Amino acid sequence: MKLILTATLLSLSLPLLAQTGQPMGPEHGYTSMTINEAKSAADDSLVSIRGFIVKRLSDDEYQLKNANETLTVEIDEHLWKGIQITDKSEIEIQGEIDQDWDRTELDANRINILTH
Q1: Count of domains forming the chain
Q2: What domain range includes position 69?
Q3: How many Å separate Cα 40 from the centre of its chain?
Q4: Quick one: which of 56, 57, 66, 93 is 20 to 30 A from 77 by CA?
């Protein structure tokens, strides 16, 4: 019985995987966008934004800036992994949009340094 159920589930999921052809996992599915685009993105959207950390707002909140746009980013301590940056270091942050009624924030999942 378990074998039949497993075979049935596998046969149902393979066409779906073949149709999308898209890799799945935490490193995939992020959409590159500007800060202004991110501010109007749907809650829980996975986005990738490039910019510069210009200010620390609290223990885990920072101000990300690119061009003339700014966005608050929540970066948990474990994501830094000893990374040292300055306000001249361009970074890419991949994360999830958190839309509240009065503001938009990015909850970081990954940080990549582009320039030091």
Answers
A1: 1
A2: 25-113
A3: 15
A4: 66
